[in-house]
Amino acid sequence: MKRKALAILLIMFFSLASLAYPSTVNAQIVHATPSFVYSPFTPRVGDVVTFDALWWEQYWNENYEPRTFSYSWNFGDGNYATGVTVNHTYTKEGIYTVELSVDDNLGTGGSSAMEIEVREQTPVTVYISLSGDSIYTGHEVTIRGNLTCKGAGVQDALVFLSSKTYVEGAVWNNIESVKTDVYGKYSVVWKPIYGFYQIKATWAGNSTYPESSISVNLGVQGFGDLITEFSSNSTISGMNFNVTTRLLSFSAEGSSGTNGYVSVTLEKDPSFDPQGISVLFDGYPIEYDIDSTNQSWILHFTYAHSIHDIVVNFNADEISEPALSSAPDETPETKPKEFQQTLQLERVLGAVITVIVICAGIGLLIFLGKRKWFRKYLFTF
Predict the structure, then answer these.
(1) For residue range 206-229, what is the model confidence (pLDDT) as tens digits?
(2) What is d(CA 24, CA 229) in angstroms, rounded to the nearest whole number?
């Protein structure tokens, strides 16, 4: 009877220990299947083609368990490269199958492939580039390029700029038609809405030379449900918005001796206090104005042009200023390491708690075993 009672008590204490720190069960590991984009979308022989999987990596680390990835590219013409973003130049026209393979720090991985058509160079060639291949909603992008004939700029030629979203059934929409200058160059400023775009420049051709066109990709990110518009007369770079902490950070640059401004339009949410905003300008707080309309609040501030780092905190009451001076977002490369460190710390703490509970249970058994009433109870049981 004593053994039976002791066994029952031990089972009870071990059950308590398991409740204090439940055993870790490894979840099913999701295999990452990569995707990528390339630019220009209609490459020609001799063009530098950029292959980019960074968008996919950022999406993965935001929506799944963070990992570190290594990338291997096969360009389909006997050439290879490694890295999240790579460049390659094709020397012959044709259709090539480009394959991307990834391995991660968990020992898993995946691959994907895409066919691209490389066209022959034509005597009259149109080129295109963007001021940035990733911008935020309300931010402008500058579309630049040139038109050449056998390497020399073509003056007063009409170039048609159009866009198409990556949505099934989408059609090309006109952005603007622009004439080239004396050097064969053109430039247009465009403000797209949220989405992922293909931007195309087209020269219609003439009786001597055929049409020439080329496309590049543009991603327009959203600010969540808070910011609906962003504008500035400065050159904005490195823009980043953390939807969770509501921290907006970017660099603003302009010519010395001139003034710059930033205007941010906010959704008029009754639960949001616009007076709780703080703006750090090169690490120091600056004053700003808040205007109210029927639908929005408009945050506005000005500054003397130079190169400035700006952080706008829309939840200033919740985050201290020292935290503002640090980067608002962790980079994908640091997340997996911190994730592993946190996991190891949780396991160590859990093991310590388990040992304490078990030792306490054994001590309690020894203590009660010396009491007559307890032994009597065991025999009765």
Answers:
(1) 888 888 999 898 988 888 888 888
(2) 45
State yes or no: cis peptide before 328, omega within 30 of 0. no
DSSP string, 132-163: -SEEETT--EEEEEEEEETTEEPTT-EEEEEE
Q: What are phi and psi of 57, to 5 degrees?
A: -60, -45
Beta strand pairing call for 134-136 and 212-221: parallel
Using alpha carbons, list the distances in angstroms from residue 87 to 39, 90, 226: 9, 10, 37
Residue type, 170: A
Fold of domain 122-222: Immunoglobulin-like (2.60.40)
Check: pTM over 0.90? Answer yes or no: no
Long-range residue pairs from 166-170, CB within 8 A, at least 24 positions apart, any chain: 166/195, 166/196, 166/197, 166/198, 167/195
Closest residue by Cα to residue 247 from 229, 219, 226, 233: 226
Q: Is pLDDT of 320 > 50?
A: no
Q: Class of 32-120 per CATH?
A: mainly beta
| Tokens read off for 261 | 């401004």
DSSP notation for 318-332: TS-HHHHTS-SS--T
Residue 124, token pair as written in the block: 């009259």
pLDDT tens digit string along 159-176? 999 999 988 788 999 999
Interatomic CA distance for residues 73 and 323, integer angstroms: 39
At 19 the three-state DSSP class reads helix
